[in-house]
Fold:
Amino acid sequence: MDRQIYVIGHRNPDTDSIASAIAYAELKKKLGQGNVAAATAGEPNPQTRYILDRLGLETPVYLADVHPKVRDVINRQPITAGAAMPLKEALELFHRHAIRVLPVVGQGNVPLGTVSLLKLSEKYLVAGTDRKRGIDTSLRSLAGCLGGVFLAGAPADEIEHLHLFIGAMLKESFSSRIEGYDPASLLIMTGDRRSIQQAAIEKGVRLLVVTGGLEVAGDLLARARETGVAVISTSHDTATAAWLARLSTPLACYVESRFEKIGVAEPLEHLRLKLLHSGEPAVIAVEEDGTIAGVATKSSLLTPVPYALILVDHNELGQAVTGAESVDILEVLDHHKLGNPPTNQPITFMAAPVGSTCTVVASLYRERGVVPEQKIAALLLAGILSDTVILKSPTTTNRDREMVIWLEEKAGIDHKEFGREIFSSCSGFAAYGSPEKAIRADFKHFAAADTLFGVGQVEVVGFDEFFDLKESLREALKRVKDDDRLHLAGLMVTDIHTETTLFLAEGKNELAHVMGYPQMEPHLYELKGVMSRKKQMVPHLLKVLGSLQSQPSEPALLQGKL
Structure:
């Protein structure tokens, strides 16, 4: 079965991220790859939600974490046994299914323990005290393994410890052999030897097994019923019957009640640690309700994970869905700087210097000769218009403009009117519900040498709402900085009409000395002509934060003077 492939954007996805994921998954399907689906690593922001609702498109499946889980590598139809199953049937299961560990389950399919073929062999084959004669079994299990019928007495489910003797000798020799044993623990096995049968019955043994399908005299059976001796007749010869009797022991006598178990939703790494350090050959995987889900062995760790990823609108693991480093990444489509991890195999990697990942996807449609459906064309158009701020952003290229013209024809929508509709419907802070949600809706992490910083961005029409919320936003920005352990957290508030950004910063107070833009008040800077985080804001911050690190500290300067 082909593994599932998810096309997924970065955490805190914007419109370009989700639109490119949906559109590229649709392109893959049209090109004949049916096991592809769009996914999202975070909740769509208000703008994206509006666009999806406007176009009648479903939100992609939400993947919070793609770390391989135990459920990804186990067989959900494990071979199990009940505690009453005789050893004979259990060995048949081991052989038929080529397994090494057999889970023993109780009522409701809840695991009671395990039986390992290795430990079973040690217990069964290695002779210990009383091992040569002792048999732990029930009369019902014994009769079942022998294929026998009760001529006297009845089957019982209670497990008894019996001592097996073969009656293949003279009555006198036989009687001397069984001296010293409690008759209630004796299992006598013989053929058509009347003297042995009679001696066993008179002795009051627990069970007499007559082999070869031979008849037992009526007077002896009557006496057996009087003395409470159970008599079983089996068609097997004595040697075979003795062997089968030993295999009648129920698994309850061999089960290891202390066993390793793990939930199906736990990370695969937890299973790896249990298998490597527990010393057990297998770990029992259980469902949330405690019922058995499967059996995991070391070979399970070699099972391929049943899904893989195609990354869109990012290529750095720090921005990817949690766990992306643990699964195969098959392709990358992006328009950002490179920071991608190494891969084990060659992959398709497209990183074009354009304003939107949707531009890259739209170009692939056209190159492959595939005409996008009207809704998909409109979605791609929305992704480009959103990321380039209706083609006003300095990240906009001629290729973006070319794709916009091509897509608006396929979508039947005027791009300028559509762009104004998108931004006017969801611009500002009210749509986010809280200052922290507004900051985190499109918040990305970066690093300038040892300095960690993050930048969010919100598009607005006018700055009045921002100034009303400024103090609340600053407090929320401080919480984001502390929670994410950043040296600097910033929020770009970009007016799409005046093409001006107000940058609210928390942390790195010395930034004011090197920022290079007017400081309107503490923590707030005015950046005229700045609209792009990717092409303008982040490169500038990387430069100025780097310059702060290269400057010697005050103690170092004093030491130099000394």
